[in-house]
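Protocol step 4 of 5: obtain the predicted structure for the target chain.
Materials: sequence only (see below). No template structures provided, no constraints applied. The aim of this step is simply to have a reference model before the mutagenesis design in step 5. Sequence pasted as it appears in the construct record:
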Amino acid sequence: GFGNAAGKPVVSVIAHDLRSPFSSILGFAEILKDNFDDFSEEELKKYIGLLHKSTNNTYRLLINLLEWSSVQRKKTKFTPEKTSISELTTEILGLFHDQASQKDIRFKNQVPENLEWNLDKNMVTSILRNLISNAIKFSLREGEITVFAEKRNKLLHFSVSDNGIGMSREKAKNLFKSDFNESE
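Step 4 output (C-alpha cells):
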C-alpha cells in the first residue's frame, strides 16, 4: 500500500490523527447521554455546542487528511491560487482547537494579516497540518505553539515552533533522509 516518509501506511496515519478528536466527541456525547436529565437547558446548550464544534473540527480534519493522502499518492495536481496566509493558518489552527485544549496549549498566529501568496492550498495545508499535529504531540502541558510566515528572498518561509522536548541536531539532520525510519 501507499505510505508516508516514515513507511507508515496512509490509512494508519489518518486513523492515528483522528483518534484524539474522536475521543473528544465521544466524551461530550457520553456526558450528554449519562447526565441529560440532570442538566439545565443552559448546560445542555453548552454541551451540545461543544459537541457540534468538536464534530465540525473533526470533519474538517478528516477532509484535510483525505486531501493529504491524495497528495501522498501523488495524484494531486499542483494548482496554485492567491491565498491569504493569515486566513489559511487561522483555518488550520482551528482544526486542532480541541486537541490543543486537552493539553491547555495556546496557539499564536503571528502571520502578518496582509501577507498573500500564490500557492497550492491543499499542499501547504497538508504540510502545516502535519507540523502543527507534531507540535501538539510533543508540547508540554500549558505550552504555546507559534505559527509564523514571512517573505524572504522571493520565497515564503513558514515556521511552527513549540516549547516541547525538541530533538538532537543529529536527529534533525537525518529527518528528511528517505532511508530514515526511526519510530518514536
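Step 4 remarks: Strands lie at 81-84, 106-109, 116-119, 144-152, 155-161. Residues 41-72 form the longest helix (32 residues).
Proceed to step 5.
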